[in-house]
Specification:
heterodimer, A: alpha+beta, 2 domains, B: alpha+beta, Ubiquitin-like (UB roll), five-stranded mixed β-sheet, two-stranded antiparallel sheet
Chain lengths: 166, 97
């Protein structure tokens, strides 16, 4: 996630979230994770039940980290301006799962969902990869322009009379 | 049980902008009913067909209630109840849904 100040649209504070979608080695915990997964994704996604080690195809935030980060953001008066993730085997476009979760009744419609596709094995690092940004509101996906800048001094996101600090 | 409920941004329209409100109840369901009595409309955002909505997470003192009985999960005195949108996703194989 990238947090920004309430009242602002600029993502500023990078928060790397653990992907908790992996097996713990504990049968009971894994069973719980599968059950939660089934509730979240529906039985049509039962195929993924066996793949807890699915850091390549599915993500979910670690609960404890998420709560800590949320409380941090609340006390700093921030909101998650950007939530980003990658698609390792498919295009950088919201999947049905992405859309459904972003459209939930408690989801913030202001969030910019950034998706990066890393599927081109010929260029696994920098170079040609898809990096796209979307708004997802009530099931409707709208793509946004992405402008890559060296610093916010050169962007159009607001007053920049001082250079950004690292 | 008197508890403190933390409200996600998008639901603060129901609480007059408050990010944290007090409520009473000994289960999650009772707390939601209590919230509804003073913040009308909030229950419909949390509960669907008698169950916790799939894309809403509720934590009682940092434990996800989905693993503790869902709406029947017990809530203790001075507990913190945190409501958050579910966040997850990924590229589920083409052809599904």
């Amino acid at each position: 996630m990238i947090a920004g100040a309430e009242g602002d649209e600029r993502p500023e504070r990078f928060i790397r979230m653990l992907n908790a979608a992996k097996p713990s080695g504990d049968d009971a915990a894994d069973a719980q994770e599968r059950a939660a997964r089934s509730v979240l994704l529906g039985d049509a996604h039962a195929e993924y039940q066996g793949e807890l080690r699915s850091s390549t195809t599915y993500y979910t935030f670690d609960t404890k980290q998420r709560l800590r980060v949320q409380r941090e953001m609340d006390s700093r008066d921030e909101w998650p301006v950007v939530i980003y993730h990658s698609h390792t085997r498919s295009p950088a476009y919201p999947s049905q799962v992405d859309i459904d979760l972003a459209s939930g009744p408690a989801s913030d419609p202001r969030i910019h969902y950034v998706i990066v596709s890393t599927r081109d094995e010929a260029s696994p690092t920098v170079g040609e990869y898809e990096f796209r940004s979307f708004r997802i509101v009530n099931g409707v996906v709208t793509e946004e322009d992405v402008e890559v800048v060296e610093s916010y001094m050169f962007s159009h996101t607001g007053a920049d009379d001082v250079p950004d600090r690292a | 049980m008197a508890v403190t409920v933390s409200i996600p941004t998008i639901l603060r329209t129901h609480t007059g902008g408050e990010k944290s409100v007090e409520a009473k109840g000994s289960t999650v369901a009772e707390v939601i009913d209590d919230l509804e009595s003073r913040h009308s409309g909030i229950a419909a955002r949390l509960v669907k067909d008698g169950n916790l909505h799939r894309f809403v997470n509720i934590y009682v003192d940092d434990e996800d209630v989905r693993f503790a009985g869902g709406l029947d999960a017990p809530v203790g005195e001075n507990s913190t109840v945190t409501i958050l949108p579910a966040v997850a996703g990924g590229a589920v194989a083409a052809g599904m849904r």
